Amino acid sequence: MKKLINRPEDAVAEALMGVAAAHADRVRVHIGPNYIVRADAPVRGKVAIVSGGGSGHEPMHGGFVGMGMLDAACPGEVFTSPTPDQMLAASQAVDGGAGVLHIVKNYTGDVMNFEMAAELAQDEGMEVEQVVIDDDVAVKDSLYTAGRRGVGATVLAEKICGAAAELRRPLAEVAGLCRKVNANARSMGVALTSCTVPMAGRPTFALGDDEIELGVGIHGEPGRERRKLASAHDIVEALATAVVDDLPFGPGDKVLAFVNGMGGTPLLELYVVYGELHELLEGRGISITRNLIGSYITSLDMAGCSITLLRLDDELTALWDAPVSTTGLRWGV
Amino acid sequence: MSGIVTQEGVAAWLRAFAEAVAKNREYLTELDAAIGDADHGSNMDRGMQAVVGRIDGPSAGTAGGGVGALLKLVGMTLVSTVGGAAGPLYGTFFLQVGKAAGEATELTLAQWAAALEAGVKGVQMRGKAVLEDKTMVDTLMPAAQALSAAAASGAGLAEALRQAAAAAEQGMKATIPLIARKGRASYLGERSAGHQDPGATSSWLLLQTAAETLAAGAPAEVPGA
């Protein structure tokens, strides 16, 4: 394992100290319990949006704290859910009196810890709503699994809900928008290499030099299928077809196309992927009216990418375009 | 009187459970590596070490509030130190047992059995698991039912705890052939069969140590009392 760390067990806390040192103008970092809040929190009269999850997916979620997106993020250990005391403290720190929305990715640990946090917060008289994001089409959604995983749609939901909250939309509406984003978004990813968790010290899974894992999860969970490496054209076709056919997206749909890097893939390759995706969707009569290209929900040093499509209407488009000022996403300001 | 559960007994149980988890740390992690993410032993050990630190810590003596307050402290400590899914599940278990136990410093077998049932209900509510999903519920539910049945039949505390531990062990072993339907292991589908569930195993340690400690120091049992 080659990593720019001191001791594996200190990596998360030291990264948080780095964030605090770099971005004091935008965020405040609290250690013990660990959370990041926007510098001007709490914002009076505004719904507060809180998310969180295991570390190792940066810039999600800490990099999305700021005006127009999240009020707080709770980072857990690498790939490990944060705990309810973190979520409760973060929620208290940002509650501006209009209620708190928790955006939760669908993993067993995250869901349970956020549920407990909501109960604790409600016991203290706080108004809390939770929306679970589960957009990964690689996982079969059945009664017999923990359900689909939350991936790329989380970034889009955080941006869109953050914009709605800035407009002082009430909690029920912001939560409704979050559900709308989740209902209209689908994703799937591919790994060219494994990731390596600092504490583990070795790759999470073994992948041959000429193999790819199609449908991989953001923690290196197994996907749908292991294949021989193929061209970007063929890989995009496999990913995009699975995504398009699942919702399904059809002719005349306007979409936001999000090509996300897993952490170890250069932007050059992501643009190759985007070009292929653009052509494929055009062929199906689906028009990309907004896009996002870059590494926003990563899996440590994994090479690979994911494709997320979100069906847009005028409301979602306007909220996507609204100003945002975070370390990870910034426009209109 | 066929034996009562005391606050001191509960504290002794928690220490014994922490010791058992520490001793089985590698074993639990090994079980988890097969069908999960290989951290159950280390997570539970970290949590229970924190619990022992709290209940034997400098501020513990002044806490008061009976068994309920003690178990609430345990639950909140686990919730904030274990993480993953085990934190909320064990945390909820102790919080609910504590809520049911209330401010009493001593509980009869029937009261203790009811508190345990409340704890198991809490775990089911939190994890939404039913029997045979290959989870800790497979250990806890039969154990709680055995304890209640023993209490209803007039068994003494020590005997009832033994029966609960035996039911727990049976439930734990019964998870081996099951296909997981909850948690990370469920993504493996049929590949999860043939492995004993790590959560069911740590829950067995919980019931096993209860049988070893909770009845200690209880008055001698009178059959049929």
Radius of gyration of chain A: 19 Å
Number of strands of chain B: 2
Identify the biggest protein-protein contact and residues per side.
A-B, 25 and 26 residues
First and last CA, distance of chain A? 40 Å
Q: In words, what does this structure look like?
A:
The complex is a heterodimer of chains A (333) and B (225). The model of chain A has no long low-confidence stretch (mean pLDDT 96). Helix content of chain A is 32%, strand content 23%. Chain A is of the alpha/beta class. Chain A has 2 domains: 10-183 and 320-331, Dihydroxyacetone kinase, domain 1 (Rossmann fold, 3-Layer(aba) Sandwich), CATH 3.40.50.10440; 185-311, Hypothetical Protein Tm841, Chain: A,domain 3 (2-Layer Sandwich). In chain A, β5, α3 and β6 (128-133) form a beta-alpha-beta unit. Chain B is globular and about 45 Å long. Chain B has one domain: Serine Threonine Protein Phosphatase 5, Tetratricopeptide repeat. With 225 residues, chain B is mainly α. At the A-B interface, α3 of A face α4 and α5 of B.
In short:
Chain A has 333 residues and is α/β, with parallel strands linked by helices. Helices cover 32% and strands 23% of the residues of chain A. Chain B has helices spanning 7-23, 25-35, 40-55, 66-81, 86-101, 109-127, 137-152, 157-174, 198-213, and strands at 4-6, 106-108.
Topology readout:
The complex is a heterodimer of chains A (333) and B (225).
Chain A: H1 11-22, E1 27-30, E2 35-38, E3 48-55, E4 72-78, H2 84-94, E5 100-105, H3 108-123, E6 128-133, H4 153-166, H5 171-183, E7 185-191, E8 211-214, E9 225-228, H6 232-246, E10 254-261, H7 267-283, E11 287-294, E12 304-311, H8 314-321, E13 324-325, E14 330-331
Parallel strand pairs in A: 3-4, 3-5, 5-6, 10-11
Antiparallel strand pairs in A: 1-2, 2-4, 7-8, 7-12, 8-9, 10-12, 13-14
Helix pairs in contact in A: 2-3, 4-5, 6-7
Chain B: E1 4-6, H1 7-23, H2 25-35, H3 40-55, H4 66-81, H5 86-101, E2 106-108, H6 109-127, H7 137-152, H8 157-174, H9 198-213
